[in-house]
Amino acid sequence: MTLLLVLMGAVFVGLNTGVAYVAIGTKVVPIITGVILCLVFVIAVRLLHRAAWLAFLAFAPALFVLVGSVQFAPEAALERRGVRQEVAIVDVEVTGKRHAFTLQGADGRLDEPLVYQGSNPSYQVGDRLAVLTDPDGKVEVEAADRVDSSGMLGMLILGWVGWTFIALLAGWRGHVRRRKGRFDDW
What we know:
Low-confidence stretches: none
Helix content: 55-70%
Keywords: Membrane, Transmembrane, Transmembrane helix
Distance between the termini: 19 Å
Largest sheet: 6 strands, antiparallel
Transmembrane segments: 30-48, 53-73, 152-172
Oligomer: single chain
Number of helices: 5
């Protein structure tokens, strides 16, 4: 059962990363599937190994798996096929905590804005920066120095390693408890 749990974690990591690649340009679909797959893994740890505290601990690597799998696809796409452009920020439209910066390159304004979610953006009107744009228009414009698919891949692998460790720990715990004749839930 422990090996099946380890394999299930690996399949879930690959499956959600694949969903993110197929649904590139929208983050809602891989987030929803990722949350469902992460919850299934956590519930499987709880049901198969009767370890509520290990199931609770499985949420931490699940966060790494979720963020890594959702962010890896668009960043890898920008690194692979993105077009690097030197632009200037000419205008900003602020709606709540969403900042949409209008960009102008050497050959005119870009159709898509650079979006920053949060307060206190590090960009201001008049700043010059390098951005990566997707020629297919599926991935949002991103500042070139913030695109890091290897970091997202590392996060994804770290989450999978965490899940593997928890699955092995739960299996070892279950084995020891069965040898001692203890079959209670905690």
